[in-house]
Specification:
The complex is a heterodimer of chains A (about 375) and B (about 550). Chain A is an alpha+beta fold and about 375 residues long. Chain A contains nine helices and 14 strands. Chain A has two domains: about 300 residues, no CATH class; about 55 residues, no CATH class. In chain A, β3 and β4 form a beta hairpin. Chain B has four domains: about 190 residues, no CATH class; about 50 residues; about 230 residues, no CATH class; about 55 residues. Classes of the chains: A alpha+beta (about 375), B mainly alpha (about 550). Chains A and B meet through α1, β6 and β7 of A and β4, α14 and β5 of B.
């Protein structure tokens, strides 16, 4: 006797299949959809990165040097003479036998002694890396104050995104929504295969007409399923982890295909601490999403992010990542610290959070209850 | 060592080259010159696993197989072994033999030599007789056993290593055509001068390869040696035993893998930009889905064969479920292989029957699009046993292949334009209507309602029966008498290795029973296995044999 997956009424099933993209429904009490919601679409996040909008000439004097050249500058900061630096530069720049590499991995000075620069970035001489001067950045007006920065999508001014300014001249953090920054292409590639996926549920009375809408973000039990080419696989099934730490509910408005969530919320998603903070965390977060014709969604989430946690995600990766991916990690520490713009420490006055915006893309997915009974719901496209 | 290796390799090759001379080892009243079917790759693997266990790795490549009259099984009587292929068989034989005698597997050998550095004919003889009976699917003759024992002795003397010597002798046995080919020996029918019948061991392997896709087990060999297979009662007892075994599933799978042409998955490619979900895993799962569907319906539930074209019951993995766009939870840990889950499509779901499964729709499609023509041709030829002529030379396919032509947005429109050529129209008329019914499935088997924004029309007709969609096409094939007669033809051809056309008396008789019994596949298999025609042989041409081998005694 063949068992059955529980299904919704056949009219919905039929429509769902013929619509091309089937979607799931959130179950087991984890959904926060309004009681009157009759249409729900579910997705799995297939791409998540800083929302970058790098433009020519947005770094005065050019972008920051590549790491080999930066290391030579750092040597000068450590007190080496030009001739000494020149002599070292003739030798291997990377690898175990590199004198420069050895000096750089201990370029912090604690009580005058060499120390790990990634664990003690404040004990490294600030390399004074350049930051972006652009007044174009994705994000939201988080503080309600006027400002020069404008969102290139919404044209809204007063955008708070000092994170983009801080890292905007780092090579591996430059890019656009279409041309993905090197760091995130690498980091997300690691994260998506090593941690449970993040799922999104959108509920409204009708997603075909303007009105109230609710979106939830949760973490799944399953990892993101990928296609043969590495792209996120649509229509796979995920179960929601009931851990409340990764449960986020935002209420907003749907107009056309644009969803906006302007009521600030605290936003948290647990992630793999291997190369990132243990959780992606924003306070006073806002969100906007677009329902795309191919059934997927994309959008921007912006808020204040604890910059030291982001730094630790980089710092724990150490010299290999610094050399191959990120560029000068202690330098990034100083940039983040400099441009942090919220949550001042009561004692020192140093801001502990930095305004930021992240970009997400998500493909349709089925969402099943924790008890593993999958249910199919409403149509999406075609 | 090298000398010995060359010696044995050469011996094996010479033996193969002189295939006709093999009969010289056989008992005088046995004729082995009638039919030889080369083992398929799957049969080879199964025998090695059965004899030496599943941990033995083959380590070589098989000769390409040949499809004749729609079946690789029929092609096995048409193929030989090329010199390059023989090298591969030799590589595999050595790899297998080396593993069999290594410390990990040495327990397979039922005795130990008195001295590891010297020959031990008694131990060698015990082992070679035991495995030889299973590899050759009959007992070794005294001459054969003596040859292999002698070869091991020579090799041991050369290498000063008993196990090495044994390995080389075993490798020679595995390279022999007596192993690589299923030889159908015949013997005179007792009490019926001038009449011949299949020798009992040949009957045993005929049965086991058909029902289990494997060589005979010890019980079947014993039955052959007792003469049980030469009696109706004894034959029926063995057939019933084999049909009751779980191993019959392997036989059913092997037939449908062959009949549905799943070997073509080995070379199937899809444009990843157009069909990103069609991974290698999806392709493997798709085949397995269809096979599981068939086995579940026909064996587990002993259902009506015709229902394979309409059944809503199947099995899915998470990889497939995302192609079918249905929810399916994987209970295993992340990174673990997908699990198979029984699944039933709803009554009004467009999916139903194996024709709507990914395996069929994707296999009969080019890399970048679906193809009503290829699908229709497969339906006609594979499932209805109807011959579709090859396209005439110099036909232009540009209209059909251009899926971006704004004038012809759907496959139906493109084919209509293409078939204005009267040379093409005749065939397209009989294959396209069936294939167009499956146009809701793209080139990788995913469901769609439109092509280039235009709604897809899936209506058509089959032999006067109209249908509007794939479900109705499945029903039309279910009800078409050709589908069941085709199965009878294909299965009996598969079993015997020779084409059995639907009009032949044996096929007619089988069909009559198949129909009367409710189209149950196990009943049909049993009916075939108990048929005289299943074991029928062609009497030897004694005059030709004498002319070819004047020094051999006439039979």
């Amino acid at each position: 006797m063949i068992g059955k997956v529980v299904r919704t009424p056949k009219s919905l099933f039929r429509t769902g299949l013929r619509a091309g993209f089937a979607v799931g429904v959130l179950m087991a009490g984890v959904a926060a959809a309004p009681a009157h919601a009759v249409e729900t679409r579910t997705f799995v996040i297939g791409w998540f990165s800083e929302a970058t909008y790098s433009q020519d000439n947005d770094c005065v004097g050019g972008i920051n040097p590549n790491i080999d050249d930066q290391y030579l500058k750092n040597l000068a900061d450590l007190g080496y003479t030009p001739s000494q630096i020149e002599e070292m530069a003739k030798k291997e720049l990377d690898g175990e036998n590199s004198p420069i590499r050895g000096l750089m991995t201990s370029r912090a000075r604690v009580d005058g002694k060499p120390a790990n620069p990634y664990a003690y970035p404040a004990f490294v001489v600030d390399p004074k890396l350049k930051s972006s001067t652009s007044n174009l950045a994705y994000g939201f007006d988080l503080d309600g104050k006027p400002g020069p920065v404008e969102d290139p999508q919404t044209r809204q001014k007063g955008i708070d995104n000092e994170f983009a300014r801080a890292l905007g001249c780092m090579r591996s953090f430059r890019g656009s929504l279409e041309s993905r920054p090197t760091y995130y292409a690498w980091a997300w590639g690691q994260l998506k295969d090593s941690m449970p996926a993040w799922v999104v549920t959108i509920s409204a009375e009708s997603l075909s007409k303007d009105g109230d809408v609710t979106v939830t973000f949760d973490r799944a039990f399953e990892h993101l399923r990928s296609n043969a080419d590495g792209s996120p696989r649509a229509d796979a099934t995920y179960r929601i982890d009931p851990d409340p730490r990764s449960h986020n509910v935002l209420h907003g408005k749907l107009k056309g295909k644009e969803l906006t969530f302007d009521t600030p919320v605290d936003f948290r998603l647990m992630q793999n601490p291997l190369m990132a903070p243990m959780e992606f965390k924003m306070t006073k977060a806002k969100l906007r999403l677009t329902l795309k014709d191919d059934g997927s969604i994309s959008g921007i989430v912006g808020g204040y992010m604890p910059w030291s946690e982001f730094y630790l995600g980089l710092g724990t990766q150490g010299p290999g990542t610094e050399y191959c991916i990120t560029g000068d990690i202690p330098g990034i520490y100083y940039l983040l610290k400099k441009f942090a713009d919220a949550d001042p420490d009561p004692k020192t006055g140093q801001n502990r959070a930095i305004s930021a915006a992240y970009y997400l893309e998500a493909v349709p997915a089925f969402i099943a209850s924790e008890s593993a009974q999958a249910t199919q719901h409403a149509p999406a496209r075609e | 060592m090298k000398t010995t290796a060359r010696l044995l390799s050469g011996a094996a090759f010479t033996a193969l080259s002189l295939g006709a001379a093999l009969a010289a080892d056989a008992p005088a009243e046995v004729d082995t010159s009638t039919v030889a079917r080369r083992l398929t790759a799957d049969e080879y693997r199964t025998i090695i696993t059965d004899v030496f266990g599943p941990t033995i790795e083959l380590g070589g490549r098989f000769e390409p197989e040949l499809r004749v009259k729609g079946l690789l099984a029929v092609g096995t009587t048409h193929v030989s072994v090329t010199s390059a292929g023989m090298e591969q068989y030799d590589v595999m034989a050595r790899a297998i033999a080396n593993q069999v005698v290594d410390a990990k597997h040495r327990d397979l050998i039922p005795c130990r030599p008195a001295n590891d550095k010297a020959a031990d004919d008694a131990c060698t003889g015990t082992f070679m007789a035991k495995v030889g009976r299973l590899l050759y699917r009959r007992p070794l003759t005294d001459a054969e056993l003596k040859t292999y024992v002698g070869a091991a002795r020579v090799a041991t003397a050369e290498t000063k290593d008993y196990w090495n010597g044994l390995s080389m002798s075993l490798a020679a046995m595995l390279s022999s055509p007596k192993f690589l080919f299923r030889q159908v020996a015949i013997v005179p029918e007792p009490g019926k001068p001038g009449q011949w019948r299949m020798e009992a061991h040949a009957k045993a392997q005929q049965l086991s390869f058909f029902l289990w896709n494997a060589g005979p087990d010890l019980e079947l060999l014993a039955a052959a040696e007792r003469g049980d297979l030469d009696t109706k009662k004894g034959l029926a007892k063995q057939v019933d035993r084999m049909m009751a075994s779980s191993r019959v599933e392997a036989g059913v799978r092997a037939f449908f893998i062959d009949n549905l042409g799943f070997d073509e998955f080995d070379t199937l490619t899809k444009d990843a930009a157009l069909f990103p979900k069609f991974s290698a895993q999806a392709a493997a799962d798709a085949q397995e889905q269809t096979l599981k569907t068939i086995v579940d319906l026909l064996l587990t539930h002993k259902g009506d064969y015709r229902d394979v074209f309409t059944t809503k019951k199947t099995f899915l993995t998470q990889e497939l479920a995302s192609i079918y766009k249905v929810p399916l939870v994987n209970d295993g840990p992340n990174g673990a292989p997908d699990t198979w889950v029984p699944f039933e499509f709803s009554k009004d779901d467009p999916r139903g029957g194996i024709l709507t499964q990914v395996a069929f729709t994707a296999l009969h499609s080019p890399p970048g699009r679906g193809s009503p023509t290829l699908r229709g041709k497969a339906l006609r030829e594979v499932l209805l046993c109807q011959k579709v002529p090859a396209p005439p030379a110099a036909v232009k396919f540009d209209i059909v292949q251009d899926t971006n032509n704004p004038l012809y947005k759907t496959a139906r429109e493109r084919l209509k334009a293409h078939a204005t050529n009267p040379v093409c129209a005749g065939c397209h008329k009989i294959i396209d209507p069936m294939g167009l019914a499956l146009e809701n499935f793209d080139g990788a088997g995913a469901y769609r309602l439109t092509e280039n924004g235009v709604p897809i029309d899936t209506s058509g007709s089959l032999d006067g029966v109209n249908f509007t969609n794939s479900a109705e096409l499945g029903k039309a094939i279910h009800d078409n008498p050709a589908s069941s007669s085709c199965l009878v033809s294909r299965l009996s051809s598969y079993a015997t290795g020779r084409p059995i056309d639907t009009g032949m008396p044996w096929a007619q008789a089988l069909l009559k029973n198949f129909s009367a019994g409710g189209y149950k596949l196990p009943d049909l298999m049993r009916d075939i296995a108990l048929s005289d025609d299943f074991f029928s042989v062609t009497p030897p041409d004694t005059k030709a044999a004498e002319a070819a081998a004047p020094n051999q005694p006439a039979r």
